[in-house]
Amino acid sequence: RRSRFSGNNFEIIIIDDGSPDGTQEVAEQLERIYGPDKILLRPRARKLGLGTAYIHGMKHATGNFIVIMDADLSHHPKFIPEFIRKQKEGNFDIVSGTRYKGNGGVYGWDLKRKLISRGANFITQVLLRPGASDLTGSFRLYRKEVLQKLMEKCVSKGYVFQMEMIVRARQLGYTIGEVPISFVDRVYGESKLGGNEIVSFLKGLLTLFATT
To answer: In which pathway does it act (predicted)?
Structure first.
């Protein structure tokens, strides 16, 4: 609701990599309703990866802060005012949504998916001690210049990418705040997490352990 964001100038940048689920058509409708100054649709012809989507979005962002979130509403916009409040409260460089602290939680996952996510976070905590409770989530607020610097440093792909962003942030001395969030799994579509992603995560984790 607009009233929840009163006093904050904002724009919504939608990056769609040729998805077949009608995302672009819905975004075009929103752009017509709210205007191109608020809804910026920046599609790409094919899937090019999460990291390049971040870079593509940053090129069009005019604000000093960027909120990254999934467009399927697994990340609920109601938490964004809390992110803003937390950032102002501690003047943080990054505010990360956490499913594993306070009243945060996950809904709609089966036991296997929960164990994988918890296990990934636990192993990373033991090996890298990053000082953040949720390393694989992607619902975050960044200072724009901090996000740009992290994108220059990060080399990982896939599931391990979000983890590296936090680890590199700590390595570079950036401050990180956390806001408990409720993550609700998508109703339509399938998760991208599979055997290849798990292997990639383990390789990436060992690489970070060796280089940080």
So the answer is: Protein modification; protein glycosylation
